[in-house]
Amino acid sequence: xxxxxxxxxxxxxxxxxxxxxxxxxxxxxxxxxxxxxxxxxxxxxxxxxxxxxxxxxxxxxxxxxxxxxxxxxxxxxxxxxxxxxxxxxxxxxxxxxxxxxxxxxxxxxxxxxxxxxxxxxxxxxxxxxxxxxxxxxxxxxxxxxxxxxxxxxxxxxxxxxxxxxxxxxxxxxxxxxxxxxxxxxxxxxxxxxxxxxxxxxxxxxxxxxxxxxxxxxxxxxxxxxxxxxxxxxxxxxxxxxxxxxxxxxxxxxxxxx
Length: 257
Hints:
The structure is a single chain. The chain is of the alpha/beta class. It has one domain (3-249): TIM Barrel (Alpha-Beta Barrel). 38% of the residues lie in helices and 18% in strands. It has helices at residues 22-25, 43-55, 82-103, 114-122, 124-137, 150-157, 191-204, 231-244; strands at 3-10, 31-35, 59-63, 107-110, 142-146, 162-167, 206-208, 214-216, 221-225, 248-249. The strands form two sheets. The chain has a seven-stranded parallel β-barrel, surrounded by four helices. Helix 4 crosses helix 5 (124-137) and helix 5 (124-137) packs across helix 6 (150-157). The longest helix is centred in the middle third of the chain and has 22 residues, at 82-103. The two termini are 17 Å apart.
């Protein structure tokens, strides 16, 4: 591996509520996952985020969520059927596409947020619903998927371009899924620890669980969550260590396989 993407969830502020250090992160990452109003973000924040990303040469993607501003998209919403999820994702991608067009940028990928992403990782119907929304709007959009999960299998089934993702600041269980945020150690805050884990996973081509289990996966992109207080230091160190290892950091290109 000689090229990889470094992405960050951003544009998650809402009205007077401020979240993350977007301006600083846009100097480090190569792709930005922009909130579309359902868990964070609003029209003004979306315009500002997309404009700054364009100025910095950073690729952008839609970051759709369950409709849960109060819970920041991290609460389980029962009873949502796949058809409704598909429509909600279409709505959110479309909103960002409109903003991007007005600014002169282009939406290149889609990455689901929070509980929607966690559900899609284990539930085939949800993963396919998100994929169908992507295909309906632009089949050239890259479907960002958690490596080795139902998300990856859905992208393959729908013949969509995909970027398989690992997280710098989240711990994994032995199934290859993210450790619940309710459990201790689920979120990493030490930049050194995160950078070392990323280096090991990229070098070995595997997710490394908290127990030390290796789960072989392809890795195309690495995420640092923008709401992590250590995000700027962590992203900077992750990028530095990757480049020291001879790996160039560039916006995701996606693959179909």
